[in-house]
Design a protein that fits this description.
The structure is a single chain. By secondary structure, the chain is mainly alpha-helical. Helices cover about 50% and strands about 5% of the residues. It is built from 4 helices and 2 strands. The longest helix is centred in the N-terminal third of the chain and has 27 residues, at about 30-55. The termini are far apart.
Length: about 180
């Protein structure tokens, strides 16, 4: 199951990168939460690197940059990205939980639980099985509560609230193309 470990490590590398962006676009309590999450993902990344090394393999290094699934320009975008990152990590750890090594399964189960809890912290409304393929979630407000809505005008002067959904497919681990 070295492949599952490598996938989980790649997901953690991407999470560390994403939380750097999230922290840059937040302030106050949100930045504290982003920093705490960043530190947790760095620690988990280091743990996965150690497990891979103990199995006699060489852990992959992170890419210098990652392609984010959408542009992050506001705190609400950062919150939406944090929820997405955590949900995608749950998916990676669910795959790793099938490892034949009981100690790796324990790491995967604990990591999946922590990621699901962090996703809940960014967005209180969770699905029955967070991280399972086919699930969607609504982004949280910048303060971490409820759903994020945007007021839009339809040209008649009427405003309506719209809510976005998040695609649960994994974050691409390839570096973005040079610009």
């Amino acid at each position: 199951m070295a492949d599952s470990l490598a996938k989980a490590l790649a997901a953690e590398h991407a999470a560390v990168y994403a939380y750097g962006v999230i922290g840059a676009k937040t302030a106050g309590k949100l930045r504290v939460r982003a920093t705490t999450s960043f530190d947790a993902h760095r620690a988990r990344r280091d743990q996965l690197r150690m497990l891979i090394t103990q199995q006699g393999a060489k852990p992959a290094e992170p890419s210098p940059t990652y392609q984010l699934p959408f542009e992050v320009t506001r705190p609400s975008d950062a919150v939406r990205l944090a929820v997405l990152v955590e949900q995608r990590l749950v998916t990676a750890y669910l795959e790793l939980a099938a490892d034949e090594d009981a100690s790796v399964r324990r790491v995967a189960a604990l990591a999946a639980q922590e990621c699901a809890t962090r996703a809940y912290g960014w967005q209180p409304a969770v699905t029955a099985f967070p991280g399972m393929p086919g699930q969607t979630a609504s982004p949280a407000q910048p303060d971490g509560t409820g759903e994020a809505t945007e007021e839009t005008t339809d040209g008649t002067g009427e405003t309506s609230a719209t809510t976005e959904t998040i695609d649960p497919t994994p974050i691409a681990s390839e570096p973005s193309a040079p610009q």
